[in-house]
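ingest -> validate -> predict -> emit
validate: passed (alphabet ok, no gaps, 424 aa)
predict: started
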Amino acid sequence: MADEDRPDWAQKIRSEREARKWSKAEMARQLFKAAGIPQGNVRSLARQVAWHEAGTHRPTDWAAAYAVAFNMPETVLFGGRGTDNDDVERRTFLTLATAATAASLARDIEPLRTAFESAAAVAVGRRDADTWERVAWEYAGEVGWAPAELLQRELATDFGELTRLIGEAAGTARLRLVHVAAQLAALTAITLTNLGEPRGARRWWRTAGRAADETGDHSTAALVRGRSAVFALYGAASPLSVLNMADEAIEVGQGTPCTGVVSGHAARAQALAELGRHREASEALDDVRNVYDRLPEFVRADRTTQWGWSDQRFWYVASTVHTHAGSLDDALNAQDKALAAYPTRNWQARTQVEMHRAGVLMRAGDVDEGARHMVRVLERLPAEQRADGLLQQSAMTSLRLAPTEQTQRRTIREARELLASNGR
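emit:
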């Protein structure tokens, strides 16, 4: 994109960064610091900084952090919102066109790289496993907030290459690559759920489970099943089916306090809450806390990847349980703590928590304010984020908490129409 075609905010980001003599990596560190994230994937965020400065991705989730890092008002850096529809539409078009062109070019030249890999026939060994473990870790930090359409294509390409390498590997290197395959398959399933394709996600969860079992590592097997149970809450599975999946994750984990086992308990608590079994859900939430308190510190400290289980996840689960029970004070308290814990960039989970807030207001009797809160939150998001599968399901679940006799109120209809207008 030529300089004159770049949005003003993209040019300002670059000029402000260069005025401070920061590299893109240093800009990423400053953004993490501004967002209150003690550790983050600098390489991944530096790549996003490049996208921001090129004007191909508007930094919706990082706008506030940029403003703090540069010590200037967000409105000065990015301008007011909604004041120039034509400009917004032009930028959106340029963003989509540029992303589509880049993706097309990458696909066009991929056969050349694949042909070389086949011709070289280099032995697969430890260094390949090291590389692919880093790849999986980077994806784990991007899935859930980066554009799902782009990630799905990249994951598919990398999974294809990894599959070929596994067929040529042996011994420890092969086992490590199979472990990576389990992770990438799980991340693909999560991405498909984000895209609103739960049935496709189920097939990838099966693949992830088989790969995890082949590693012989019960923690990995529990991880895949626990995360699968959690994401099944946002798919086509019934809460009763989720309970079975959650129990399997807990059993496979063999009592080890790990991400998979705590995820199983978390899925169980939320499924019971959706079923209206509130006493059991509260007891299950106690089980979540018990396992959480015994998790390794590196798991509790991980706020940025799909494999961590920090306090932000606990308060999210607590928010869900109290919201369905209609416990207004407990729900609002859990939501406040969740929002304080989630990084700024995690727009998906933060918005889901706001959907909980709308739901508990409706469950407690303030239907109009709950629905209006939902609309206000959704209207602040770009259309592609409003179409997110997890967000859509969270919003619809909250709307179902309104008393049956009030589901045709104008405010409820407006919220439903807003959601439908952005569904995939």
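Residues 124-216 form one domain.
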